Amino acid sequence: MKNKGFPRVLILLLVLTVLVPSVFAYMIHKSQTVENAFIPGKVDCVVKEKFNDIVKSEIKVQNTGNVKAYIRVRLVFNWVDGAGTVVARSFGTMPDVSWDMINWIKDEADNTYYYKYPVEVGEETGNLLTKNWTMNAVSEDTNGLTYYYYPVMEVLAEAIQADGKDGDEPAVTDAWGVIVSKDAEGNEYLSGFAAG
């Protein structure tokens, strides 16, 4: 008795031998690597100052992160000697800072200025100063020698992500205690400080 099923099995094996590698090769060829498009948020900023000799005319802060951010600036004042070394003495009051009260708000408790509006990536705040700040020297005579001391303003800037998660309070309110309000067009801005 002849086995009639043998040619069928042989044909089926030949077809599978040709098809399986072809299908597998096609699947490998068509599959593409997909890169993860997730980019974590980075909040960063840099101070941009303009000054000439003893006159500071501009204080701005640039958002160098990759997300929209609120920015604040703390001004720290010191007296330095002619070599630039900070001295632990005071030679009177520091020159007043004339600041932009329209686009910035100030926390009087710690001499910190908050830019009212969120700053887009790569953009800068408006100028904090409305008038030049001059570092005029004072002199002191000691044992027949005259020593000069200069007021110095150090600018420290911080940034915080402007957008919170849906329905969440903005991070700036929780972290910095600043109230976020909306204007008539729905644009957010910092309007004041939370009590306490």
Q: Can you describe this structure?
A:
With 196 residues, this protein is an alpha+beta fold. The termini are far apart. It is built from 2 helices and 11 strands. The protein is elongated, with a radius of gyration of 33 Å. The strands form 3 sheets. Strands 3, 4, 5, 6, 8 and 9 form a 6-stranded antiparallel beta sheet that branches. It has a 3-stranded antiparallel beta sheet with strand order 1-2-7, with no helix packed on it. The mean pLDDT is 85. The longest helix has 26 residues, at 5-30.
String of helices and strands: HEEEEEEEEEHEE
Rg from alpha-carbon coordinates: 33 Å
Strand content: 35-45%
Question: Roughly how much helix do the residues carry, as a percent range?
Answer: 10-25%
Q: How many E strands?
A: 11
Our measurement of the CA-to-CA distance between the termini, rounded to an integer number of angstroms, reads: 101 Å
> Which structural category do the helix and sheet elements fall into?
alpha+beta
Number of H- or I-type helical stretches: 2
